[in-house]
Structure formats: structure tokens, C-alpha cells
Amino acid sequence: MELRDTGNLVLLANDSSIIWQSFSHPTDTLLSNQNFTEGMRLVSNPGSNNLSYFLEIKSGDMILYAGFQTPQPYWSMGKEPRKTINKDGGEVSLASINANSWRFYDQNGVFLWQFIFSDNNDGANDTWIAVLGNDGFISFSSLPNEGSTVDSPTKIPSDQCSTPGACDPYYVCYSGNKCQCLSVLSSDTCGPGFVSPCNSSGSSIQLVDTEVGLNYFALGFSPPSSKTDLDGCKNSCIANCSCLALFFQNSSGNCFLFDRIGSLQNNDSGGGFVSYIKVLSTENGAGNTGGGVRYYRRKTKLPESPKETSEEDNFLGNLSGMPIRFSYRDLLTATNNFSVKLGQGGFGSVYQGSLLNGTRVAVKKLEGIGQGKKEFRAEVSIIGSIHHQHLVRLKGFCAEGSHRLLAYEYLANGSLDKWIFKKNEEDFMLDWDTRFNIALGTAKGLAYLHEDCDAKIVHCDIKPENVLLDDNFHAKVSDFGLAKLMTREQSHVFTTLRGTRGYLAPEWITSYAISEKSDVYSYGMVLLEIIGGRKNYDPAETSEKSHFPSYAFKMMEEGKLRDILDSKLNIDEADERVSIAIKVALWCIQDDMHLRPPMTKVVQMLEGLCAVPPPPASSQMASRLYANFYKSTSEEGTSSGPSDCNSDAYLSAVRLSGPR
User: Fold this and answer.
1) Is 566 among the residues known to form the active site?
2) CATH class of the structural domain 417-653
3) Most exposed of 78, 400, 571, 573 (fewest Cβ within 10 Å)?
């Protein structure tokens, strides 16, 4: 077995001849100089609608098609206006990426066409790849010898609305990739009202004129089902129970029948097509025809604005790399009717569940709308696109009617607070090694959110309840419902955030901006609690010890680090990680946000990659302020619940323009 510089993995015989090579068995990617020939095909990963896309060379052309039961083509190189023709005639039998272009040859090796996907001549010597994505588009990227990957802006197809998954079925794609349900359908469900017209339990089916100028991605690439008149086309669809929609072109008499419907396209000119779809019969139908199918035309009406539900569905459907979309019944079954409750969060309860394949999940059932819906959108868009060993993985979601649910990976050991805030002496206690690794893993998860995502992500609610532990007590940061995306240059204040009192940085109640440094402060508080095995404010302690951060600063100044550490822990006195962790925690909870280290620096300090100088003493004014703040929080009994930072007290103290 040999991996060659071209990226081709080959299996060689004793005489060095090739027995097998990966270039002959592509998946979803083609590399430079990899021959793509008739009989091969690229297959995309399934998208959120479980639809895959295929690329093949067929009948002398290269074709993209959707993998419905009856495949529906939506692009071909032969009809691609951006290609250049080197020789007219001939049939394509081989395609190969060469420098910054895709070249097409006939069976005799004659150069027929060329598709240039990058005008960057500097990258002519780079290795280029073509990838068929789960959104149905082919994208191109270069892999230079030095530096990072460069993506070409060129995609196939060029029109955002010309793929089967641009919008959900029965939605019309408009310029700007906006989606709106067909006006003849209810925008609440935007569907025909049946699963299959071949099994509609005796219900009558109507054939409805869509009354709008529509185009369909497959019309320019599929042969017509027949040549007839409009009535003949309708009768053909009626006679074929699998037919869901028809398109008829008056000028040619071409009749197109489709047994699956993908995204529709807006076409004000109509393209000479009229279109009908099958729907479940209602009392509004007029006139009955054979087979229990009725025709009727609805009054033309002005297009309505998309309803909030359809806007949200489109938002979710257009996200790349989306997790699995579950139905409400799927998750109802998975959780055994939500019978095992794991916990209660700020916006809903979490239940234990098991999918049909045996995968255990934690299902978060969002309760109510408003801020809960914002959390839903934030979590699905952010967590669904992020994968890191110290961040909780979102497996799927449900957006059905008023139901909003999130299905996370299940972490058997629950949240950190259950392990460090022990109520009984006989309870199992985490040792120092485990605690330190939890602290380090949490820091790495936050550092990834702050520095390694495409856009900076501020969590805004770091607390022990949002640090989950797997079977091996590896930490994973959870609950991104409060997270906000920021550009790397942005540092202005968010006005709709909610955090948990007891972990909020001073800038939350002063006139300073909220930023990733606010997460650093919250992390420092959590790290102190991990070290001390107690909450940051405990009214049961003496007045000196009740506010743990103030006590920790005092003990640091007096050189009594052992008094900060959980008294029940057995540690090696020579273990430098104890003093490192304490000093890092006290650096993180500095009142002045500019003194707090970034999370990447926190990771380096905890790993011993750089020295940790003694932290400066905390402001006594801030300590008194926060001691009173924590005390009032504790008396209210909401120390672990979310604090609404939309209140007048918060907003009056926060300047939208950032720091003074």
C-alpha cells in the first residue's frame, strides 16, 4: 500500500503494477489530475432532509442530480454557459482538474471543453479539489504548498435557487435565497396534506393550479413524460398515483410529471409553464372528475409575508452541516413520553432519551416562545456547526409547530455542580487529578469558542451546571443558548443577554462592554469552586470565608494556599498545579477586564507552558459590592438560575457604545 504525492492511495503487486487505487473509487471529492470517467460517480453526504446528490458522466455529458426514488437532474456541463468550448461536437467520457480549470475529453483524448473555476494564476501550481457538498453544490478549493486552504468563489451551479434543496419542498426560492410557501397551501404546514397520494385512506385528492409563474430545477434537464395538451397532462398525473406535480409548456406541448418535489423557483415570466400540485381534498373544491380527483382554481391573491414558522424553518434548512431534524413524535418516543427528567434549565427541562439505533441522547424541551425561541435558533446555528472534544455535540433538533426541542449527546456523569458541591460526606469525591483535568478541558472548550471559530463566540453563562462530564469525567461545555456571535473586531455591548448571578463579571453591572473577557471571569469563578469544593458565596461560612473570592485573595497574600484548597482533598505537596490553578483563577476574576488573560493564555498557564506571576489584589470596593450581590442572590434563592439582564437596572448601567 502506498500513498502517492498526488493523494492517490494505491495497492501494488509484486511487480509494482497497480491492483487497486483510490482515484478509481471517489467519494465526494476529486483531486487535481484525478481522472473522472464514465461509470464513476461522486456522492454527497446526506443533507438535513436526508437527500444525497450525485455527479456522473452520462450520455456524453457530466450531470448533477438529486437522489430521489426517480433521480432528478438539475445541472449539466453541456448546458453550463460559463464553460469554454475548445472543439465542437464529441461526447465527454473523461474529466480531470488541471491547475485552475476542469477539462473535459472524449474517449480518444480530444480536448472538448474547459471550465475555469479560478482566475488566480498564482495558484496554478497548487493542488485543487472539487467537493460535492450536502447542499448540492460543487465547490473548489486550493491546497497550496504553504499557507491555508483557499476557497474559490465559483460554485456549480451558479444560481442559489437552482438546487433541489435551496428551500424545503413546496417552498418557492426567491432572489437572495429567500423561501416562501406556495400561496395555494397553508403556510402552517406548507404541504399537500398527505404522505403519499397512493395511500391516502380513501380521501379525495385535488389537483390545484399553483396560479404563479414557477420554474423547477429539473425542467431543463429531464425529458418530458409526454407530448400532449393541458387536459391530457392533467389526466396523466391523475392516472399515475405517484405523480405529485405536473409542469406543462403550452408552446411545445411538453408534459413533465414528478413523483417527488424539491425546492421550487420563482419565475415571473413563467417560462411558458403552468403547474399543478396534488393536495388533500377540502370543501373548497369545485367539480369532480374520475378517480376522486378534482380540479379547482383559487382566486389570485397578493403574496403573503412568510409566517414566522416558515421563516424559522427556512433559516434552519439553509444552514450548512445541520444536525438531524427529528419530528416531535420521534423525540416523544425516544424519551418515553418525557418520563426521565435529567434537570431543569433556564428555558426548559432536559430529559433522557434513546434513539432507534440505540444512541442515548439528552433532549432539551424548550418551554414557551420569545427568548426560548432565540435560544433555539442560537443553539442550532452555533452548536450544530461546531465540533470539539470539550464542547457538547448537538445530535439533532425538532422544529415542528410550536415544539422546539434539542437532542444532545448524552453525558452519563451529568453536570459538574453535582460532583463538587457535595451534600453528604460519604458521597464520592473527585480527586485532584480529575478536578484539574476538568478545569483544563473547560478552558480548552472556551478557548475554542473565543479564538478558533469562524466568528468569535461568547458563551455568557459559564457555571458548573453548564460543564458536563462523560463516562471518564472529561469536561464538555454545554448550553450555547446564551451565546452571541461577534466579529473579531467587535466589542460592543449585547443588550439581550442573560447570565447567572454569582458568575457575572463586574462589567455586567457597570458601564463597561461585555466581551469574551466576561467568560474569563465566569471561568475563574468556576475554577475557584473546583479548587475549593464550595460555592463562591456560602452564608453558612464565617463572615471572613462567606465570599470565597475575597477569602482566596487574602489567603494568597498571606501565603496560605492550602487553606483555599478543598480540605477533603489529599494532594502531593510538591504538585505545582495547585498553586498554578489558584493563581490562574485569581487572574481570571480581576475586576479590570484588561488584566484578565485570554482563554488561550489560561490553557497555556494550566499546562505549564508559561509562567504564572502572582496576581494583583482584588479591589476591595468590588469585593464588597459582589459580596452583597451574591448575598442578595442567595437570599432570593436563585443563585443557580438565570438573571435577566434586560432589566432596567442592567440596561441603565450599560452603554451600547461600549466602554467609557
Assistant:
1) no
2) mainly alpha
3) 573
